[in-house]
Amino acid sequence: MDSGDSHLLYRSVWFMFAVMMVLGMASVSEARVHYHKWKISYQNWSPDCMQVTIISINGQYPGPTIKAREGDTVVVEIDNQMPTENVVIHWHGIRQIETPWSDGTASMSQCAIQPSTTYIYRYAADRPGTYFYHGHYGLQRSAGFYGSLIVDSAETEPFVYDGELSIILNDWWHTSTYQQAAGLLSNPFVWVGEPQSLLIEGRGKYNCSAGSSTTCNVTSNQCLPHILPVKPGKTYRLRIASVASLSSLNFLIQGHKMTVVEADGHYVEPVEVENLDVYSGESYSVLIRADQDSSKNYWAAVNVRGRKPITPTGLAVLNYLPNPSTNLPTKPPPPSPVWNDYAYSKTLAKKFLALAGHEEPPPMKPTRQLILLNTQNKINGFIKWAINNISLVPPPTPYLAAMKYKIHGAYDTTPPPDAYHPRDYNITIPPINPNAVEGSGVYVFELNSVVDVILQNANTLTKNSSEIHPWHLHGHDFWILGFGEGVFDPLKDPKKYNLVNPPLRNTVPLFPYGWTALRFKADNPGVWAFHCHLEAHFFMGMGVMFAEGIHKVGRLPRSAMGCGLVLNKMMHH
Ligand SMILES: O=C1O[C@H]([C@@H](O)CO)C(O)=C1O
Predict the structure, then answer these.
(1) Domain enclosing residue 324, as ranges
(2) Is residue 82 part of a domain?
(3) Which of 125, 174, 389, 434 lies 20 to 30 Å from 356 when distance is taken between CA atoms?
């Protein structure tokens, strides 16, 4: 915007304000603009008492919480002060309606923000809910680059509470993300391994077995447990999200049941649980009542699910006021369900249903159906993940600019296959002939069409092994139509879809050896990633690109286009 534009805007805002005053409308709540200025820099930090280098925002970890009200605008000016690394930030759960260039995906929605460079994200907090933000370049999310984004409702909500608390769950490694990335890109492959700690709101406790040292300091304030303060007798809305890099997690609060009321920004029929599975990329609101013995404090605990856990339980303290928060509970927290009790997780996942009256899915047959086979695979001996045998390699020119400005040669223009071949692929054994290819093609949908996606799981490269993959869609929510075992049957299985009250979400688990079916409306002009939210898996190519309505995308900010072929185009015009 040049200064002429801003004067005009300034004058028209004042004019509207004056009109509202005259009409006596000033009491009507006005949409606000929340302006944040963030410096991104390295810091040495001890989230679990072991000192490592993290990516911080304004020197903080986790990053600052963004709070907005439905209808408000959020503006975040990023100043990349890391001397040797680009950044982008993805606003997870925000659909970026009319602002696809603010989705914060490197190579997709924008050119990554270079060192000593600024970029302004501006977007509408168009819908209430529990969201978060995180780095979406390389393995930056695993370096602690994330924080909460909470959008309050402008209307009365379908439940009541006295206070609100918010936590982000995470898993944590002591090896640097650079070392992890090098291992993942090597042949022989070096896996990142299981995390050293689990963190609640950026805090955990590693057992510095060799005793405290300058690098592992059990007395560091940074690894004191996170405190959740509550007043006896009151009800709290606890917002829970997971940015875990690898682990599926299970969360519980000693002695307290939780009633789940919101998932990924959508109200669900209330479900009472003793413990809650939270997959990476998911968010929930639960109601908890502080109705236990108020002379005590209680553990909030998080454990690994779906992978044989060698990581200790992560702990926070539910602190009944006015007890001191340092009064730690004397009894250990109850255990989470056994890590490989998948039946438990599937039953729980199927319990979340849209609250009555919520947006229903279009009941018609989909315009398009994709069946996406997830395989751990090999390319020239390197271990990758592939979807319908293609491992996604994002191109140097961001898709959004490439598609909008029709830049030739920026990405594979051959669309990837709608289904996998051969159709009798055996999902119960390691791939017989792992021979994936790299690709950068895009699934292009007709604007406003209805798309069904069936995610099909399979055996990994290791015998008797299939893993959980939480899939996250950018720019949209989808209805979860069903989960199933084994190979999806395109004739029989759609008959079992829940078209009555499926939950609307942006992230869904794909269980081992099973399938997950979802439906969405391709109604948001832009280019959008759809990918496994496990950081290492996306890094290894586990994702696809979707696009629709490119002709409706507005003018891209120049600052989103300073790289690849789009840079040449800008320089020559
Ligand atoms: O992508 C992965 O690689 C490892 C293992 O399959 C090979 O070391 C693992 O557990 C993953 O999830």
Answers:
(1) 157-358
(2) yes
(3) 125
Where does a domain end: 307, 340, 358? 358
The half-sphere exposure of 357 on its side-chain side, counting CA atoms within 13 A, is 2
Q: Which atom of ligand 1 is nearest to the CA of 537?
A: 1
ipTM over 0.95: yes
Q: Is residue 363 part of a domain?
A: no
- Other beta carbons less than 10 A from residue 558's beta carbon: 9
Cα separation, 71 vs 103, whole angstroms: 18
> Ligand 1 mean position to 537 CA, how many Å?
9
Determine contact, residues 192/246, Cβ cutoff 8 Å.
yes
Residue 307 alpha carbon, nearest atom of ligand 1 = 10
Say whether pLDDT at 506 is over 80: yes
Q: pLDDT band at 265, cuts 50/70/90?
A: very high
Residue 117: band (very low, low, confident or very high) from pLDDT cuts 50, 70, 90:
very high
Q: What total number of domains does the chain contain?
A: 4
By alpha-carbon position, which residue is closest to atom 3 of ligand 1?
Answer: 191
Q: Which of 186, 191, 459 to mutate to test the pocket of ligand 1 (most atoms within 8 A of CB)?
A: 191
Do 351 and 380 share a structural domain? no
DSSP output for 506-547: SEEEE-TTEEEEEEEEE-S-EEEEEEE-SHHHHHTT-EEEEE
- Same domain assignment for residues 559 and 436: yes
- On whether both 244 and 347 belong to a single domain, the answer is yes
User: Can you tell me the distance from the alpha carbon of 467 to that of 297, in angstroms, rounded to the nearest whole number?
Assistant: 36
**Per-residue tokens: 139:** 């393995």
Q: What is the largest CA-CA distance in the chain?
A: 75
- DSSP assigned state of 87: B
Pocket flag, ligand 1, residue 467 (CB < 6 Å) = yes
Give the global pTM: 0.94
Is 161 in the same domain as 68? Answer: no
Paired tokens of 230? 């509550």
Q: Are residues 146 and 284 in the same domain?
A: no
Cβ of residue 462 lying under 6 Å from some atom of ligand 1: yes
Asked whether 86 and 137 are in contact (CB, 8 A), the reply is: yes
Ligand 1 proximity of 12 Cβ (cutoff 6 Å): no
The dihedral formed by the CA atoms of 217, 218, 222 and 227, expressed in degrees to the nearest 10: 180
- What's the gap in Å between 191 CA and the centre of ligand 1? 6
Same-domain status, 209 and 324: yes
Which residue has a Cα nearest atom 5 of ligand 1?
191
From 156, 173, 207, give the residue that closes a domain: 156
For residue 280, which of 537, 495, 540, 23 has the smallest C-alpha distance? Answer: 537
DSSP 183: H
Q: How do residues 11-46 score in pLDDT, each as one tens digit?
A: 444 444 454 444 444 444 678 999 999 999 999 999
191 Cβ inside 6 Å of ligand 1 = yes
Same domain, yes or no, for 468 and 422?
Answer: yes
| Ligand 1 atom at minimum distance from 191 CA | 8
- The SS3 assignment for 539 reads helix
535 alpha carbon – ligand 1 mean position (Å) = 12
Answer whether 460 contacts ligand 1 (Cβ < 6 A). yes
CATH number at residue 53: 2.60.40.420
At 212, the pLDDT band (50, 70, 90 cuts) reads confident
Same domain for 190 and 274, yes or no, is: yes
